[in-house]
What we know:
The chain is mainly beta. The protein has a single domain, classed as Immunoglobulin-like. The protein has one helix at 2-18, and strands spanning 26-31, 35-36, 40-50, 55-56, 64-69, 72-75, 81-85, 88-97, 101-108, 112-114, 119-131, 146-150, 162-169, 172-173, 178-183, 200-203, 209-213, 218-227, 232-234, 237-251. Strands 2, 5, 6, 9, 10, 11, 15, 16, 18, 19 and 20 form an eleven-stranded mixed beta sheet that branches. The longest helix is centred in the N-terminal third of the chain and has 17 residues, at 2-18. Bound molecules: copper (II) ion. Copper (II) ion binds at residues 18, 20, 25, 50, 57.
Amino acid sequence: MKKVVIALAISVAVMVAGTGGALAHFGMVLPAKDIVSRPGNLTVNFLFWHPMENHGMDLVKPAEAGVFFQGRKISLLKDLKKVIKDGHTTWQVNYLIKKPGDYSFFLVPKPYWEPAEDCFIIHYTKVIVDAMAAETDWDTPVGLKMEIIPRTRPFGLYAGNIFTGQVLYKGKPLPGAEVEVEFYNADGSRKPPSPLHVTQVVKADSRGVFSFTMPWAGWWGFAALHTDDRKIKHNGQDKDVEVGAVIWVRAY
Ligand SMILES: [Cu+2]
């Protein structure tokens, strides 16, 4: 009997770590700071994670990673350093910020095959860092295939602020988009009282606009999900691709 219980516990643990089940995967782009007050190096981390559970996944070398600044995309792919975090592959870059302005750091992962969902997952992920209180470009689209455009200025936020964003798919608003919200529970201090408390869900309106009140301080991730119009082959069969637009904002 005890063996059965242990075996069950192990299989549940494996399911949780591997597939997420009710737990959501999130692309993450996490800068050391969201507000930079003087020129200097900024460390930015790229992860594929279950943020609330603080469960790692491996992020293979991304298809693209970079920064969008003053209307230009700068690739940082060749500057990425592999960093093993909790036994999982993540990536890191040190970017020298010289000028005032808003810097959108973004990640385009390679398609991730998720056997449990019988689909590929691609999370187009970004975070916006303000340098020297410029506040110039925080709502300018980077031009990702799927993207959340903040309607709330995405830095200098307090816990209790409402974050509002608009979901774009191929540059057009995505009506009724489902948006998953998770807190990055990096120190494990948040204990969700039920599995339903791990991921919050809001739906966008007819213009793709959604809102969420961040109840406490820390990093909050918003992931709008959609089934892509293209398929990718897996073992010779066409499979769905879940595209996500993810944005990270920090509440104080
Ligand atoms: Cu997972």
